[in-house]
Amino acid sequence: MAAPGTDAGEFENWLNGRLDSLEVDREVYGSYILGVLQEEECDEEKEDAIRGILSAFVDEDTVEDVCQQIIKEWTASCSRSAKRREVEDAEVQAIASMIEKQAQIVVKQKEVSEESQKRKEALLAQYSTEGEEEEQPSGNPIPGNEKSLFRNTNVEEVLHRQKQKRDQAREDAQKKKETDKMQREKDKLAKQERKDKEKKRTQKGERKR
């Protein structure tokens, strides 16, 4: 992928602008190209897949430069995202450390408070036979292993949906490519027919003279 955690939104905005400049349908081909960049491991595989799509729209002399430009921007976006994650992780770690210290202070205060309470109860017990029952904590927490299973199931479901989305984008892109190719062929034939008709009219005019 890949490059997990990449800020795809930032890159996607850039990619949409680049596809618009090439007059390529961003809705169909943008999702497919993004999926290729996320799934393929090496730049060569990414470039081959992207060239297979863009070669239908971009001149052969420039398609390689466009592919490399897209991959270069994707790599830069991944690098920026990694740096942001490092900063965020450091902030989270600092907050977690502070919370842990506060929790330790609370625990110590609770231990002191409980020890003090025990001494009071011991003194009261000397003068009274009545005792106080300590309230038991209520609730039915989810066991740790069940929580872990719940989280893993959610992750698998999200990954499955993402894969389905990428597969659909690839299929849509292929269909769109074939449709566009057929339309270009029709336009080319229609243009040639118009040229032939115009040529025949010109020849008839010359014979009449």
From TrEMBL:
Keyword rRNA-binding: no
Comp. bias (Basic and acidic residues): 110-122, 157-196
Domain CCDC43 PWI-like: 7-79
Top-rank taxon, per record: Eukaryota
Region described as Disordered: 110-209
Classification via InterPro entries: CCDC43, PWI_CCDC43
Keywords, alphabetical: Coiled coil
Regions of compositional bias (Basic residues) in chain numbering: 197-209
Keyword flag Signal: no
Family note: Belongs to the CCDC43 family.
Protein name, as recorded: Coiled-coil domain-containing protein 43
Lineage per the UniProt record: Eukaryota, Metazoa, Chordata, Craniata, Vertebrata
